[in-house]
Amino acid sequence: MHLLTVVAPVFAARCSAVVADDGACVVVDPGAGAGDQVLALVTAHGLRPQAVLVTHGHADHTWDAPALARELDVPVLLHARDAYRLADPFGTLGVLDPRHDPRGPLAQALVAAGVDLGSWRAPDRVEPFGTPGGARDDDLDLDLGGVRVVARHAPGHTEGSTLYLVEAGDADPLVLSGDVLFAGSIGRTDLPGGDPVAMDATLREVVATLPRGSRVLPGHGPATDVATELATNPYLPR
């Protein structure tokens, strides 16, 4: 397995293509403006997309997911507890809803990227995993056309936030952490669906138990690794 990465213009959200040796791939978090870049990668590298995955349902990570999934003729996968967000990506953002505050940061970033705020159309094919409610789910092995990814439920930023663990040969797995874990920080918990108690449990029971050698690619900002974050991130347990 290896990764190809592009950065969307809206909030510099990271989008990754997890690629198997035979060219099969899954696309993770195609935010606004990432779709065309992903299509260019697919063509340039002769990739065979199998699915679009999202780490959580916020619009800066999902905006291009429906159109990209339709273009590639693949489903969109995400945790069941965030699936409702795909029907109304703005209405589930509370204070960041650009329809309520056209001067807000998300609205400004979307408009600057050339996005029509009224152009959203939900995905045609959504395949939720996990359970719709209740406690944190156990790990789920996703085998998508030969691309193997472990989905680890990590609620707190949203109810369905998920870490994706990608095989990295003989090394510890690569972690696509979405907005759960950043270099030196964590995702906010004050938006609808956020939960500081759930986030604290996720940090103690999920993030802190990841293999120390794992490299982490957050949804925004620089890459890091688990050992560094455990040693220096003020939000993680010591």
UniProtKB/TrEMBL annotation:
Keywords: Hydrolase, Metal-binding, Zinc. It holds the Pfam family Lactamase_B. GO terms for molecular function: hydrolase activity; metal ion binding. Transmembrane segments: none annotated. Residues 14-220 form the Metallo-beta-lactamase domain. Its cofactor is Zn(2+). This is Beta-lactamase domain protein. It comes from Cellulomonas flavigena (strain ATCC 482 / DSM 20109 / BCRC 11376 / JCM 18109 / NBRC 3775 / NCIMB 8073 / NRS 134). The lineage of its organism: Bacteria, Bacillati, Actinomycetota, Actinomycetes, Micrococcales.
